[in-house]
């Protein structure tokens, strides 16, 4: 994986782009969980959302690494 991505002449760290993708996916997951009422069974919503974000970010990193190589 390369260290930076060139976006219109501005070098952006690739981790930042992957974090943005993971955030957008996490936003969809949070909306779906909120719509279904899943959060009624969760003790601490903020910690749960952070854990889901970390898992999604790890998944995005692994998938992007497999697609590049």
UniProtKB/TrEMBL annotation:
Keywords: Cell membrane, Membrane, Transmembrane, Transmembrane helix. The keyword Transmembrane helix applies. The keyword Cell membrane applies. It comes from the Bacteria. The chain crosses the membrane at residues 7-27, 47-68. This is DUF1656 domain-containing protein. It comes from Paraburkholderia tuberum.
């Amino acid at each position: 994986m390369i260290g930076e991505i060139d976006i219109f002449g501005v070098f952006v760290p690739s981790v930042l782009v992957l974090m943005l993708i993971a955030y957008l996916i996490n936003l969809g997951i949070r909306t779906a969980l909120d719509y279904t009422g899943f959060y009624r069974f969760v003790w601490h919503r903020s910690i749960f959302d952070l854990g889901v974000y970390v898992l999604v970010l790890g998944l995005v990193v692994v998938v992007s690494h497999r697609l590049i190589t």
